[in-house]
């Protein structure tokens, strides 16, 4: 409880304001986020963290592609980015629909995407005016530095399969597979269960695309998986009502989705996005020991059934694929850290840095030895 009580202090009391860590362009991790922003609100948490770390100078949010067809998804993504002061290229999935989320499974969770789209300013006027996801992927990748891009997939894998299948065109003389090989440093996927199981992103809607990506992703490019068992046990957003202003789209989306007076939600996509930006080098980037680690040394993921089930294959010849797990005892501290990021002021340019932490915090086990 002592650790928790420290970590739920406001961001301002944890750190002193320092210059953004992004003075050096080398520290900004370029990312593309592939999201099913529409139903579960943890995509909102993921986009919030991506925008916060973009503003801190740790991430370079180059683009957002939607893998669900409702036009509200792209508009809601634009509203979130606009709230954080960022005009991020966005691609709507095609064909575009007017769908709104209805929870016909639990009859519990509420719709938020259309509300974000219509009640907050946004730079994107219309989903129909955006490029397609493959066009935006190809445009961003073709201009990226070699092996620099991190693709963070927090939804269905339809767009990534379409990217891999894309041929040379007016955007790039390279095929989609060649662009991935040349430009992508790491693919980070929230999907599957590890070491084996079934999870919705992999099998819920488009298991064929999942199998294509898992089995055809260029073998030379790193892949890291974030399974359902990781984020499903970490509840973030618990106290947002006490830490965010009433007009925050992040607070509002969590309130609308979770409902019944609660804003706590599993953290599948926020954790995946945090890793996709920071990797495991947290000490130099945010001043604390990483709360994530690789669960395996070698092997690769495989899709074992037409329903999108997956299983890890042990193979000492493959060392660039991993799945993530928490470090020992990091469950509550991870939730508190995510809440700190979710609660950041949208205009904040300061960063958590080790030097700024209080003397008491330095004694906590998550912080490095001095
Ligand atoms: Ca998602």
Automatic annotation (TrEMBL):
In this record, what's one Pfam family?
IU_nuc_hydro
Source organism = Hypocrea jecorina (strain ATCC 56765 / BCRC 32924 / NRRL 11460 / Rut C-30) (Trichoderma reesei)
Instruction: Give UniProt keywords alphabetically.
Output: Hydrolase, Signal
Which protein is depicted? Nucleoside hydrolase
Key word Ribosomal protein present: no
Concerning its family, UniProt says: Belongs to the IUNH family.
GO terms assigned for molecular function: hydrolase activity, hydrolyzing N-glycosyl compounds
The positions making up the signal sequence are 1-20
What sequence ranges are listed for the domain Inosine/uridine-preferring nucleoside hydrolase?
Answer: 31-219
The family database entries (SUPFAM superfamilies) matched by this protein are listed as:
Nucleoside hydrolase (SSF53590)
RNA-binding keyword on record:
no
Q: Which InterPro entries match?
A: Inosine/uridine_hydrolase_dom, Ribo_hydro-like
What is the top-level taxon of the source organism?
Eukaryota
């Amino acid at each position: 409880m002592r650790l928790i009580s420290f970590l739920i202090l406001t961001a301002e009391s944890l750190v002193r304001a320092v210059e953004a860590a992004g003075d050096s362009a080398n520290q900004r991790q370029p990312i593309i986020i592939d999201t099913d922003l529409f139903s579960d609100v943890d995509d909102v948490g993921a986009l919030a963290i991506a925008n916060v770390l973009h503003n801190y100078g740790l991430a370079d949010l180059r683009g957002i592609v939607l893998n669900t067809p409702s036009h509200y998804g792209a508009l809601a993504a634009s509203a979130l980015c606009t709230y954080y002061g960022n005009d991020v290229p966005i691609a709507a999935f095609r064909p575009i629909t007017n769908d709104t989320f209805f929870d016909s499974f639990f009859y519990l969770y509420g719709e938020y995407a259309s509300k974000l789209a219509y009640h907050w300013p946004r730079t994107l006027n219309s989903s129909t005016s955006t490029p397609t996801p493959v066009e935006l992927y190809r445009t961003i990748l073709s201009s990226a530095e070699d092996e620099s891009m991190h693709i963070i997939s927090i939804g269905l894998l339809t767009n990534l399969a379409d990217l891999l299948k894309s041929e040379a065109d007016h955007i790039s003389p390279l095929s989609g597979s060649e662009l991935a090989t040349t430009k992508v440093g790491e693919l980070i996927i929230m999907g599957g269960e590890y070491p084996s199981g079934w999870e919705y992103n992999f099998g819920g809607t488009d298991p064929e695309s999942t199998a294509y990506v898992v089995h055809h992703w260029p073998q030379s490019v790193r892949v890291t998986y974030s399974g359902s068992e990781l984020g499903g046990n970490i509840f973030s957003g618990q106290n947002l009502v006490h830490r965010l202003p009433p007009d925050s789209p992040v607070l509002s989306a969590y309130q609308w989705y979770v409902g019944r007076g609660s804003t706590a939600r599993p953290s599948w996509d926020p954790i995946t996005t945090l890793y996709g930006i920071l990797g495991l080098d947290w000490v130099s980037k945010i001043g604390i020991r990483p709360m994530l680690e690789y669960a395996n040394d070698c092997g690769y993921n495989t899709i074992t059934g037409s329903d999108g089930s997956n299983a890890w294959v042990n193979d000492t010849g493959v060392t660039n694929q991993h799945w993530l797990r928490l470090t020992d005892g990091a469950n509550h501290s991870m939730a508190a850290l995510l809440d700190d990021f979710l609660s950041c002021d949208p205009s904040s340019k300061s960063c958590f840095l080790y030097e700024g932490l209080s003397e008491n915090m330095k004694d906590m086990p998550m912080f490095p030895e001095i």
